[in-house]
Specification:
Helices cover about 20% and strands about 30% of the residues. The protein is an alpha+beta fold. The protein folds into three domains: about 325 residues, Glycosidases (TIM Barrel); about 80 residues, Jelly Rolls (Sandwich), CATH 2.60.120.260; about 110 residues, Galactose-binding domain-like (Jelly Rolls, Sandwich), CATH 2.60.120.260. Strands 4-5-6-7-8-9-10-11 form an eight-stranded parallel beta barrel, surrounded by five helices. The protein has an eight-stranded antiparallel β-sheet with strand order 31-30-33-28-16-34-29-32. A six-stranded antiparallel β-sheet has the order 17-27-18-24-21-22, with no helix packed on it. The longest helix is centred in the first third of the chain and has 18 residues. It comes from Eisenbergiella porci.
Length: about 600
């Protein structure tokens, strides 16, 4: 265990306590893994041959509302206790690289930026716009004092911090980068600072400033990447901060992405010969809740709940063939001849009650039948108070960050409904007229003129359920992506419908549900399941026969499901279960339901 103060320097090489040091690191995101599993994952990282662990720090989790900071995470099972994660790494003899940039990408909602930033006009994110910097400064005023005592020169394990993430592919505002650097230094950060970018001249030159060391992110072409990087390191070492050994999945992909292990192994050999490496990812973990990100090319591609990433450990922490191959390469490179430690692979972890729990034992609990159900419209007043406005407002302007928003209005002057068109709307809409489902559309389809045929003799009630499928985490769209309806609803080619009641549905208060309220077939609805557990273990929730929605286990938001795939089952960590009766609540939006769900012993990522 590292307890004495030390030094970490960047010269021609990295130097740890005055001696040359090669970083062999792996990425584990503490906010994607339950705390009960941290020790297991970190032990496996060290056993593979790594000496360092790397993690991002997501701003949007630690400041979910402006001025409300959370560095423990009571509502997310303690996953935000960054200090405990770092101390756990230290106890196991691992060094730590932190990436607390305001923006992290990471296939995480909004690249880690808080959604409440989008409610504040035309502020230019990731720039020296003082309106943005003042928010970063307030966040760093709380974060950096937690991290400073954990640095190596204070007796901690932290050896480097990142200033910004892949900024070279986004912009060239060096005043912004200098401001971040100065904030960190002003809050007591003394270890080396670094940036990471793609291995291109334009990207690396965009982020080149004094006092920030350049590194590169890539998955292949090591020799070429390092030859470019060397032009910017001023004689310093080369490091691949993100060695991409897999990839992420998006809903409606044809299948789960798998990397080429032979190519990755060859690249690893070269990386270890030429420089330093951080595996992205050692273990990917899970996009619990609504925290998955999205990408946008020609259309929106929202990431699935699993962040398995075809990493060295599976989503539930199982050792892979790739792990063993990399372990052999690292061992040969370091000349230690270490073999996999099977005692680590089967080790038990201690629960809070002191009782040992082998949560990682994959377990099948069988079929669970629906015990209670209530549709959204019958339960609406249990979950939300309406907010009345003349024109519809985006989710962010309503003070909501994630989930669904229901927009309701009455068409007093229309007796026939011919068409609907939504302007500045995102991401997915389900429209109902007098309780009848008339339209489902997403992304660019929302702008299209959708023909509807409905004739009534009285006022028409229009309900539009908008789903935020995950904010774009990479690219220029990061500044322009409010969710819900931020423009207008065009009815029968008239410019705008006015007079709206809006219901914010972040799905964080389902304990208020009253399952006796009523249930109409075909409506978005909540379904309750109860099942008994004798020995909690990891399991996989199969939602075959269900359409689209999200799942809650004993009050914890497990994530999204969608029959579109490729992911077919959600990882349910055993640490979320308890002896005795357990509860699952499933929200389904398409009106497509079955009589049961299954808890199985194997994943199915597609």
């Amino acid at each position: 265990m590292m307890t004495n103060t030390g030094t970490f320097e960047i010269r021609d090489k990295f130097y740890l306590n005055g001696k040359p040091f090669q970083i062999i690191s792996g990425g584990i995101h503490y906010f994607r893994v339950l705390p009960e599993y941290w020790e297991d994952r970190l032990r496996k990282l060290k056993e593979m041959g790594c000496n360092t662990v790397e993690t991002y720090i997501p701003w949007n989790m630690h400041e979910p509302e402006k001025g409300r900071f959370d560095f423990y995470g009571e509502k997310v099972h303690g996953m935000l206790d960054i200090v405990s994660f770092i101390r756990k790494a230290q106890q196991l003899g691992l060094w730590v690289i932190l990436r607390p940039s305001p923006y992290i990408c990471a296939e995480w909602d909004f690249g880690g930026l808080p959604a409440w930033l989008l409610a504040q006009g035309d502020m230019a994110l990731r720039t020296s716009d003082e309106r943005f910097l003042c928010h970063v400064r307030a966040y760093y005023d709380r974060l950096m004092p937690l991290l400073a005592p954990l640095q190596i020169d204070h007796g901690g394990p932290v050896i480097m911090l990142q200033v910004e993430n892949e900024y070279g592919s986004f912009g060239n505002d060096k005043k912004y980068l200098e401001s971040l650097r100065d904030m960190m230094r002003g809050q007591g950060i003394t270890v080396p600072l670094f940036a990471s970018d793609g291995p291109g001249h334009n990207m690396l030159s965009n982020t080149r400033i004094d006092g920030v060391f350049p590194t590169a992110n890539f998955g292949s072409g090591t020799k070429r990447a390092f030859s470019i990087l060397e032009e910017y390191t001023d004689g310093g070492p080369c490091m691949c901060t993100e060695f991409w050994i897999g990839w992420f999945d998006a809903w409606r992909d044809e299948k789960h992405h798998k990397g080429n292990m032979e190519i990755a192994a060859k690249e690893l050999e070269e990386l270890l010969e030429l420089g330093n490496v951080n595996f992205y990812m050692f273990e990917g973990g899970t996009n619990f809740g609504f925290m998955n990100g999205s990408n946008y090319g020609d259309h929106l591609t929202a990431d699935v709940t699993s962040y398995d990433y075809d990493a060295l450990l599976t989503e539930d922490g199982q050792i892979t063939e790739k792990y063993r191959r990399f372990q052999e390469i690292i061992s040969r490179h370091r000349g230690k001849g270490a073999e996999p430690d099977e005692s680590i692979a089967g080790s038990k972890l201690s629960g809070e009650d002191g009782e040992e729990k082998n949560f990682r034992e994959r377990t099948a609990y069988g079929t669970c039948n629906v015990s209670q159900k209530v549709d959204l419209f019958h339960a609406l007043d249990c979950l939300a108070e309406p907010v009345g406005t003349l024109s519809p407002m985006s989710m962010e302007r309503l003070g909501q960050s994630y989930g669904y928003t229901l927009y309701s209005s009455v068409l007093h002057t229309e007796r026939q409904l011919h068409s609907i068109r939504l302007y500045q709307a995102a991401d997915r809409a389900i429209c109902f007229a007098d309780g009848k489902r008339i339209l489902t559309a997403m992304d660019r389809e929302l702008l299209e003129r959708h023909e509807v045929e409905l004739t009534v003799s009285q006022d028409i009630r229009l309900d539009i359920l908008m789903e935020n499928m995950g904010r774009v985490n990479y690219g220029p769209m990061i500044n322009w992506q409010r969710k819900g309806i931020d423009g207008c609803v065009m009815i029968n080619d008239c410019f705008a419908q006015h007079g709206w009641q809006q219901y914010c549905l972040p799905m964080d208060n389902l304990e208020k549900l009253d399952f006796t309220r009523g249930y109409d077939e075909g409506m978005p609805a909540f379904y309750r399941f109860a099942f008994t557990v004798e020995a909690p273990g990891d399991t996989f929730l199969d939602c075959s026969g269900w359409g689209k929605g999200c799942v809650f286990v004993n009050g914890f938001h497990l994530g999204r499901f969608w029959e579109a795939g490729p992911q077919k089952r959600l990882y349910l960590p055993g640490a979320l279960l308890k002896k005795g009766e357990n509860e699952i609540i499933l929200f389904e939006s398409e009106g497509k339901c079955a009589d049961s769900i299954s808890l199985l012993a194997e994943p199915d990522l597609g």
